Amino acid sequence: MEEAVGKLWHRWITRAAQTEYDDARVELKSIRKKLALYFHAFGGQPGLAIKPASREQWQARRSLLEKIAGVEWQTQLCWRDDETLFMPGSIALFNERELNEHLFLWLAALAASDDPQWDHLSWLERGQQQVVSTLLRWPGLNKIYQRLVSAHIAQRHAPKQPELIAAEHQLQKALSHPDRPISQQFDPRKLEPVPIWLHPFPPQTPQRQRTPPPDIENKSAEVTEISGDHQRKAKRVEHNKNDEGLLAFRLESLFSWAEFANVDRPHEDDEDLGAEKAANDLDEFAVSSRSGHVNKRLKFDLDLPSSDYDDVQIGNGITTPEWDYRKGVLQDDHCQIELMRSQQQEPGTLPAHLRKTARQVRAFFEMLALNKTWLRQQPQGSELDLDAYLDTVTRWRLGQKDAPNGLFKEVRRHHRDLSCLLLADLSLSTDAAVSDDHKVIDVIRDGLFLMSEAMEATGDRFAMAGFSSKHRHKVRYYPLKQFNEPLTPMVRGRIKAVKPDLYTRMGAAIRYATRALEQEHSSHRLLLLLSDGKPNDVDRYDGRYGIEDTRMAIQEATSKGILPFCITIDNRGNEYLPYLFGHRQYLVIRNAKQLPQKLPLIYARLTESL
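Predicted structure:
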């Protein structure tokens, strides 16, 4: 009873102290696509990803009700670095949903107008300069800003400390009149946060580094992906066994003895049943490397490199350039390509569960194998050529003797002049499950099988390959089928042997595939990329660096007359693929299990106009 009353009291006092309006809340994930469009239109760098910011403790004094409820100041403020635009995960500051949505758009405009030249200014001067510059560039936002300022100032509480009363007055004056300089300076963290301005002291973001994962004994443990409306802070620490503690006791301290009974426990004693809940409640994570047994794994959008290196290298010494967007330079011979072959490959046949679908696919694509072309003004043919007949009659009536001899037309068929290279992402993220019985790599493998049957039926020249990577010196490229190679049992065996491995250095793989397509003399050349996520690697090829290099590789392929097209099963693909491939050269498949059946149909639509 006491516990139940305590829960009711905690729920009531927390709601009473809450200052947000849940009914008018706007989630970042629901407005992210629109926000990216506005940010780019405002002049923001198009390569920046939009992610939720982390929650930060604020030093402002709390009200009596907040102290009783135990509510601390935690805020999410907008800021950006070279790779990411960090926004609040959700906004419920105002009782109007439209005003909360306008705050998202206003913050995007502020971030787009921010200039590093203002770094030497104080936080108050810089905030005013950001507002003034934004309103000068986009005068139409003035009405929105005035509404936001009025609503925000009405919500602010007057501090009781004399030294903070003047600071609060100056801050509100700066908010209402950003064009009037304020001479007084003070620490903004002692006042309530200002959510309609950018972060006064943006966190430092050093270059991210990845370390090899620890050895985990139970790799088949249940995997749960944790998501939310904010980024989680983390710090790297060294694991020390001396911190684990020691439980010591003296036998003479026992007051009674009992017979030993071997009890069969359904779970291990050290099983952590609340790991997911604890992770969601933490504001900051301590990350360290420690090997051992686990019962449950939590996924934080990370890919761990594979420990199985049983592939055979069949070629090396191949280099490709890489684009460094920070320097604006294409670095020659920066990446090393390794041509690989799986040791597990052996001649194989089409899997039994795909044979019926493969027959249907072949029957459909055999009708597309040859295009019809009408040969006109023929001396004989299957139909009368009306145009030639009318032309002949007209010429005779005009007295001309050079009338055409042929009055018939005949249909002829010729092969399509097309070369296609299908490039599949084989990174470790494809080891994720899409159902109880299938993983992403399984649907990719089935898609490769059906696509090979479809392209073989059309008679198009085609090649297939997979890729993965670990650092720039180790970009693995798996040739599954060459252009001049027929579809043999050995090719099917290579497809069957594909497996998840390492990371996704997409730019290097696209450049090497482009070289193969350049050797083709077909009128139309298609690079079909099959992926399940963003480009990333262990080194700095994560975030914007990988995005920009991949985009440059795609532009290089386009300039050489190659049509790149991406098919992805990443539900977040709409966030970054328009920047990489354009708005019409990609497709997101929501249900990964439908990928094998949809791939041939997508290929048919892509090539019907060719």
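Summary: The radius of gyration is 32 Å.
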